[in-house]
Amino acid sequence: MARILLLYDSRGGLTERLADGVEAGIVAAGAECIRKRVDDAAPEALLECDGIVLGSPNWSGVTGKMKEWFDQSGDRWESGEVGGKVGGAFTAGYSRSGGNEATLLQLLHLLLAHGMVIVGLPWTDTMRRSGSYYGATAHGSVTEEDLAQAKVLGQRVAATALRLFG
């Protein structure tokens, strides 16, 4: 069974609510979800999983806590121990045009820097209103469509990890 680390920071509750959808997708795909807030996880958690889904509120980019957490994972980056694992990302903010995709790209950059295989979302009509092929998003509030996209992201990361790692 693949193990997926669901690591997120949440300030106003939107990102945590999206994490619920990601977790539902991971479990639906038949993988184990290791859900942790960034305050409650150590970088060694990267070694205990086959994939990771990162979530951060959009604060004109990732939160300082998330960036600091990854700064502490430099040994894992340098050793290449995390390379080949599966990664995905999600974010939430209060404005649709407030930089959600920039935050997703920053999260994906952190995963790519560790040599991970990135999974995004395929285009859907829902993305005309919310979401991104870079990852799941929400703005203002978390809608049922947002939760559905988050679930698909969790399923896709987990299914890819299951294919790669059994």
Specify the structural class.
alpha/beta
- Count of DSSP helices? 5
Q: Please report the distance between the alpha carbons of the first and last residues.
A: 6 Å
Bulk shape = globular
Oligomer: single chain
Tell me how many strands there are. 6
Number of domains: 1
CATH class descriptor name: Alpha Beta
Strand residue percentage: 15-25%
Which features characterize this protein?
166 residues; alpha/beta; Rossmann fold; six-stranded parallel beta sheet
Q: In short, what is this structure?
A:
This protein is of the alpha/beta class and 166 residues long. The protein has 5 helices and 6 strands, in the order βαββααβαββα.
Structural summary, described in words:
There is one protein chain. About 40% of the residues lie in helices and about 20% in strands. The mean pLDDT is about 95. Strand 1, helix 1 (about 15-30) and strand 2 (about 30-35) form a beta-alpha-beta unit. It is globular. The chain starts with a strand and ends with a helix. It is α/β, with parallel strands linked by helices and about 170 residues long. It has one domain (about 5-165): Rossmann fold (3-Layer(aba) Sandwich), CATH 3.40.50. The longest helix has 22 residues, at about 145-165. The protein has helices at about 15-30, 65-70, 75-80, 100-115, 145-165; strands spanning about 5-10, 30-35, 50-55, 85-95, 115-120, 135-140. It is built from five helices and six strands. Strands 1, 2, 3, 4, 5 and 6 form a six-stranded parallel beta sheet that branches.
